[in-house]
Design a protein that fits this description.
alpha/beta; 10-stranded mixed β-sheet; 32% helix
Length: 515
C-alpha cells in the first residue's frame, strides 16, 4: 500500500529540502570534504523518499526470478476453431493476439482423443495408459508424480480452476468434495475452485471443498477467480503455478445472449457452441490484461491448448479440414490449437515442430530448474524449451499414443497407426494433410523403424499398467472404478442440493440410489 494523503505532503517537503541541499552544494564555490560527506549521506534518504512516494504508480513486482506458469486448456475446441486459422464464422481476436506475440504451434497434439487421458498427460509428462487414466472418467493413480507437486515443492503457490476429471467420476461437473482422495488437493494444489467435469453458465463449484454458486459464463468465471487468487498471492514474493481448465465448448452448449448475436445464421446448437468460444476468447483477453496490470506478464509462461479434437456434430467445420474428430486417432481427433506466450523468454514465431501435451511437464521442469527426480522415472514427453528461442525442425524422439487400444507413433512428418490390432497404416503428413494415402509399402524402412518403436512402447505400457514404474512395484489403488458422481456414496448427503442445479438434476434423477 502506498502513502496516505497527509504523508505525501511530508514526503514532498522532505524531498524539496534534500534537493535544495544538492543545489546549494553544486552552486557553492567552497566545496569542502565535510560538505561532500554530508551530501552523499543524503542520497539514501532521497532514494527512499522517491521509492515510497511513487509506490502506487508502479505495479507490484514478484521478487522471484523463476517464471510464473499458467496452463490453460479448453474442452473440445478443434484445431480449426481459431481466428488465426481463418475459421469461416468464428473470430478469436484475443487468442490471435496471443499467437502473434508468442509461439504458435501448428502441429501440437493432445495426449489422447478425449479429455481425462490428455489431462493425465499434462499432469505427469506420461502417456495416459501409464497413469491409470485409460479413457474419460478414469482416475489418476495416487502414486503419480505431478507437475503441481513438483512446483509446490520448488516454492510455487499452486492453484487449479475449472474442470478436473481425474477422479473416477463421470457426468456433468459437480463440486469436488473436500475429502476426495483423487481431487486437486491430493495432487499438489494448495488452492482449488473446481468441478469434476465440464461446467457451463452460472456454475456450482467447490472452493477447497466448500460448495459455492457463481454467476456468469464458465470461462470468464474461471479466469476472474484465477486472477483474484494470483493478485492475492503476489505480496509473498513466491512465483505462482495456476491451472485453468475450461468447460467450453463442451456440451451442453450454453452461450450468452450477447455472444449468440455473432451467429444469426447458424442452427441453434452451433450458435451456442460458437458463442461459448467467443466468451472463452474474451476470457483470454481478460487474463492477459490482468497479468499486465499486475506487472507479472513479462515473466509468466501462459501455455494454451485444447484437450482433444473438435466435435463431429457441429456442422460448421471444427477441425480445419483434417480427417476425423474427437474420439478418433486421426489428426482431427488429436491435433489441437496451441499457443505459448512468455515475453521474457519466447521469441514470437510460428512453428510446425511436432509436440504434445506430455511435453509440458518436462519443458516447465527444464525452464524452472526442477530436479529429474520430480518426475516419474518413465516419461514420454521431452523438453521443448529450446524451441522458445530457436527454429527447430526435427524432433529426435517420436511421439507415442495409446488410447483404447489404438496405437499411434508420430515421427516428424510420418504417422504410423495401428488400431485394435488391425492393419498398420503409414501416412506422410507433409504430403497428405487428410491421411488419405497409406504409404507403408513405399517406405518399408521407415515403417519398420516405427513399428519397432511401437513394439517397445507397447511392451513398456504392460509394465506400467501393472505398477512397475512406482517404487512399490504395484498399483496401490486398482480397485476404484469410474462411476457417475450421483452413484458415489460420499455425494449422497449432497444430492438434494445438487438436484436444484439445471445441469445436474438429470444425473441425480437417473443415477442416484432410489431407496
Amino acid at each position: 500500500m502506498g502513502p496516505q494523503k497527509g504523508e505525501y505532503v511530508v514526503l514532498w517537503a522532505l524531498m524539496v529540502k534534500l534537493l535544495q541541499e544538492f543545489r546549494d552544494f553544486f552552486a557553492s564555490p567552497l566545496r569542502t570534504f565535510e560538505s561532500m560527506k554530508k551530501l552523499f549521506a543524503l542520497i539514501p534518504i532521497l532514494s527512499f523518499c522517491l521509492t515510497v512516494a511513487f509506490a502506487e504508480e508502479r505495479p507490484p513486482v514478484v521478487s522471484s526470478s523463476k517464471p510464473n506458469v499458467i496452463l490453460v486448456m479448453t474442452d473440445d475446441q478443434g484445431w480449426g476453431q481459431t481466428g488465426y486459422y481463418n475459421h469461416p464464422v468464428l473470430k478469436t481476436p484475443n487468442l490471435d493476439k496471443m499467437a502473434e506475440q508468442g509461439l504458435r504451434m501448428d502441429r501440437f497434439y493432445s495426449g489422447a482423443s478425449n479429455c481425462s487421458p490428455t489431462r493425465a498427460s499434462v499432469m505427469t509428462g506420461r502417456t495416459n495408459d501409464r497413469t491409470g487414466v485409460l479413457t474419460h472418467g478414469h482416475g489418476l493413480h495416487s502414486q503419480e508424480k505431478t507437475i503441481a507437486q513438483a512446483l509446490q515443492a520448488a516454492g510455487y503457490n499452486t492453484a487449479h480452476f475449472g474442470k478436473w476429471h481425474l477422479n473416477y467420476l463421470r457426468g456433468a461437473g459437480a463440486p469436488i468434495l473436500a475429502e476426495d482422495p483423487h481431487g486437486p488437493g491430493k495432487f499438489g494444489f494448495d488452492y482449488w475452485l473446481s468441478v469434476t467435469n465440464f461446467f457451463d453458465l452460472d456454475p456450482l463449484m467447490s472452493r477447497n471443498g466448500t460448495f459455492e454458486k457463481l454467476k456468469g459464463d464458465s470461462s470468464e468465471v474461471a479466469v476472474a477467480e484465477a486472477l483474484k487468487y494470483i493478485k492475492g498471492q503476489l505480496d509473498d514474493g513466491k512465483p505462482f503455478f495456476t491451472v485453468i481448465w475450461f468447460g467450453s465448448p463442451h456440451s451442453p452448449f450454453q452461450g450468452l445472449e450477447k455472444d449468440l448475436a455473432h451467429f444469426p445464421d447458424l442452427v441453434e446448437k452451433d450458435r451456442h457452441h460458437y458463442a461459448e468460444l467467443v466468451a472463452m476468447d474474451r476470457s483470454i483477453g481478460t487474463l492477459r490484461k490482468g497479468l499486465r496490470k499486475m506487472g507479472v506478464a513479462d515473466n509468466t509462461i501462459v501455455w494454451f491448448n485444447s484437450d482433444n479434437g473438435g466435435l463431429p456434430e457441429i456442422k460448421v467445420d471444427t477441425v480445419g479440414g483434417l480427417k476425423g474428430n474427437k474420439n478418433t486417432m486421426n489428426e482431427g481427433g488429436i491435433r489441437v490449437p496451441c499457443v505459448i506466450e512468455w515475453p521474457k523468454g519466447i521469441k514470437p514465431k510460428i512453428s510446425s515442430y511436432p509436440a504434445f501435451t506430455a511435453d509440458i511437464f518436462p519443458t516447465i521442469a527444464s525452464v524452472v530448474g526442477l530436479p529429474r527426480s520430480s518426475m516419474n522415472a518413465v516419461i514420454d514427453g521431452i523438453d521443448i524449451s529450446p524451441l522458445f528461442t530457436k527454429d527447430l525442425k526435427k524432433r529426435k524422439q517420436p511421439i507415442p499414443f495409446c488410447h483404447n487400444e489404438r496405437y499411434v507413433i508420430i515421427d516428424n512428418n510420418f504417422k504410423l497407426m495401428v488400431e485394435n490390432k488391425g492393419e498398420a497404416r503409414l501416412y506422410d503428413l507433409d504430403k497428405d494433410f487428410t491421411e488419405s494415402d497409406n504409404v507403408i509399402l513405399e517406405h518399408p524402412e521407415q515403417a519398420q523403424r516405427m513399428m519397432a518403436v511401437l513394439d517397445k512402447f507397447s511392451a513398456s505400457l504392460v509394465a506400467s499398467r501393472a505398477g512397475a514404474d512406482y517404487p512399490e512395484g504395484v498399483v496401490l489403488d486398482p480397485g476404484r472404478i469410474r462411476q457417475f458422481w450421483a452413484e458415489y456414496e460420499p455425494y449422497w448427503p449432497h444430492l438434494e442440493r445438487l438436484a436444484k442445479e439445471k445441469n445436474l438434476k438429470s444425473y441425480v434423477e437417473k443415477h442416484a440410489p432410489k431407496e
